[in-house]
Every structure is written in structure tokens, then in C-alpha cells.
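FAQ
Q: What does a multi-component entry look like?
A: The components come first, one per line:
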Amino acid sequence: MSRAVRPRAARKSPEERAAEIRAGAHDVALEGGLWAVTLRSVAARVGVTPALVAHYQPNMEVLVADTFTAVVAAEMAEVAGIIEPYSSPTDRLAALIHTLVETGRDDVTAVWLDGWSLGRRSAPLATAVRGQMDAWQHLVLGVVEAGCSTGEFTASDPQTVAWHLLGMVDGLSAQGLVSYRDPAARGRLITDALEHALGLPAGALASPESAPAPTPAPAP
Amino acid sequence: MSRAVRPRAARKSPEERAAEIRAGAHDVALEGGLWAVTLRSVAARVGVTPALVAHYQPNMEVLVADTFTAVVAAEMAEVAGIIEPYSSPTDRLAALIHTLVETGRDDVTAVWLDGWSLGRRSAPLATAVRGQMDAWQHLVLGVVEAGCSTGEFTASDPQTVAWHLLGMVDGLSAQGLVSYRDPAARGRLITDALEHALGLPAGALASPESAPAPTPAPAP
DNA sequence: CTTGCTATTGATCGTGCGATCAATAAGATT
DNA sequence: AATCTTATTGATCGCACGATCAATAGCAAG
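Then the predicted structure of the entire assembly, as C-alpha cells:
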């Protein structure tokens, strides 16, 4: 099989090595949750000694917190990219819900759960978690407010609606980790509730047509 | 301070000792979450050797799963007892939401989070978690259906409403663990959403009068 | 008082954790 | 080619985990 002994790691610039370690921690977190992010697991993933990982980090508490932020921020950027092509706030919201709830994202959900759980005992992590929750709130709020501007949505308090959506997504995603009900049912529950909250006709937030409205790409 | 050496534990009947261990695990879980439920921590809590705890359990996986069930079932029984005295479904629902979200239950919330998280890797725990989720669904569904019967609530699908409520409670409680917003705001978000979903007038689910309608106790 | 049953213990094994530090060797500089 | 800088390592510490097992000691029955 694979060789039992690890060759000495190539010498790299501190910046490059630090980036590798961050990436390794990222991967480990997606595979095993934040609890799995340990000196040894990250070192093995990067192909390096645990001592080197320790050398690049003040302590594991901050590596875990930073990794949480990286994982969640990356996911948010990805989702933002997915919904961006849709032209109307309604379609964007539908795509957002569909993406979040119905396209297996258990790995990121597990990271969120660990963040809330571990955050009780790690101040840096708790701060990171609150920061990402605010970022998500900001993203969703933008869509809701846009819909209110165009008149598509009817909501007296967009802030509350955004929070409502995220609260349900968080709760139902957590439930999904132990296979409670199926993704489609979870999606329907959320779309129904949101259509209600936004004064939309039933079905308005059902899965958007798979091909997003094409945004003509500017010539490079 | 306290003596450094532990006296030999008194000899007890297996049933009694097993009950002590269950109780010890229960306490440990409430204090530190399911991750803290370990051979050594439970043994220390009970005042006994780790080996004895191991002796009474097939392995830690099942003790953790059983402890989860015990903690959550106890909480549900407590909540059921709190809302029972209220006479109308509306008051019962208001009391339920108020109790769940606005009276610090971070300890039990942490146990839920650990259940979802650890449940990914422990089959017995995952089963236990699903079982308790069903139990909660049953409790809430009873209240919602009662309200529909009396005509207080207008809901086409009580199942969905119950799930909606629990999904939000789970999500917002998790958020609360890292001090995201305050309990009152979380409660308001839920009551507003549910009043909407149940066709209730605004404010109908606001915190019930603190003194529940007295149920005449039967003479013993 | 002696005997038998068994609840309880102490010792121990192997694993994985975070962390530290002197020693090493790869690459850049001269 | 010799020298310097520093990225990387190996060794090690102390701790906590789950698990196992022969030895011990408390209690009840005889």
C-alpha cells in the first residue's frame, strides 16, 4: 500500500505553508466536523509533522475558529454565486432556499453545529460564529429588501423575515443530520412559511427552473 | 479542602447503583453536554471508580445515547407539566413557546446539539435523537390539533405547523448558545410566525399571565 | 463465626490530544 | 565552496480517553 514513512516535507515559504495548513484544516473540518480539526489530523492531511502545524498557529483554539470562518464564508460565497444570476428577488430567494436545504450540505451543517456547541467553551469560536451569522443575515436581508423594493414581497419587517428564514434553515438542517424527514419536505416547509410571511402566492418559491436567467458575460 | 483520596464506595444493589450512574450521567450531560459524558467524569460524579461505570454499561456509546434520551425526555415531561394547567390551547401554546425559548434552557439545548452532531457517528444516538424528535412533535401536535378542534386555530395542516414550530425552536435555540440576539426577541419571532400560521390575532401568543388557570387538585 | 457471593477496585494497556524545544537540513547569500 | 538563516523535524511531556481483568472486600446466608 502507501509507504509507511513520510518523506521530509519540502521547504516552503511561510506564507505558502500557512496557506496549506489552512486548506488542510478546511478539508478536515468538512470531512469530520470541527471536533476533528486537531494538530495531528491537519498535519497528516498536509503531509507534515504535528509540530509544524503547531509552529504556524498560536494554539488550536484559534485554528478551529479560523477554520470555521473559512468554511462558512466559502459556502456563503458559493451560494451567493449561485443565486446571483437570477434576475428577480423571488427567484433568488427560491434558489437560495433550494440550495441550502435540498442539495446535500451536511458537511457544512455539521460545522455549524460544532460551532454552536464548541462556541460555548471557546470565546474565539463564539465570536467567529456570531460574525458568520451576521454575514448570512446580511445576505438574506439583501434579497428580502430587494423584493420589497420591487413590490414582489410584502413584509413589514425584512429583518425579521430574514432571521425567520435562517432560523428555520438552521433548525431543519440540524434535524436533517440525523435523517429526520427528507430534504424535499424540509424545503417545502420553508417555502410555504416564507410565501406566507412575504405575501407571495402559493408555489412562488418552489424550485426555480434549473437554468438560471443567463446574464450575458462581459467579454474578457 | 476536600480530601484527596476517595473512600471506598458503599456496596449497593446493582439496580440502585445503575440508577446512580444514570443520574450521574444525566447531571454531567446537563453541565457539559454529551461530549462530557465519559467513563471518568461520570465515575467522579457518582463517587466511584471508572471501572465500575464500565462494568454497568456495555460501552459508552449506549450510555451516551441513553443519557440523551433521559435528559430530553425529562425536559419534555417538565414542559408538559408546565403547560398542562392552562385551559385553552392558545394559552398552552403560548406557555410552551415561552418556556422553551425564554427561560434559559441552554443546558438542554447543548445536549440536543451534541445529539445531532454526535448522531452522525453513533447509530444508537441517532436513533435516540429521532425518537425524541418524534415525541416532541407528538406533544406539540396535540396542542395544535386541540386548538383546531375548538376553532381557536385555523390551520390546514397541523402536522406542518407543529414541525414549523419545532424547527424554529431548534434553530433559534442553537443560535442562542452563542448569545445571538436575546431570548425575548427569539420568543417574539416565534410567536409572530405562529400567530400568522394559525390565523390568530397579533399578540395572542404573547407570554401568558404568569398564574396558570388553577386546576383543582383531587384530594389525595 | 465461617463461608460464599459479588460489588467494587487498582493496575494496566493502547490510543490520541496539545504543546514545547533542541537538533537538523534545505535553500539563499556571499 | 563556505556560511548563514530558518523551515522542519523527532523526541518528549502530561493528560484524558475507553476498555479489560485479576484481586479485594463488604455483606448476607449458613
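Q: Is there any commentary attached?
A: Sometimes. For this entry: Residues 8-9, 11-14, 17, 48-49, 51-52, 55 of chain B lie near DNA strand C (CB under 10 Å from a C1').
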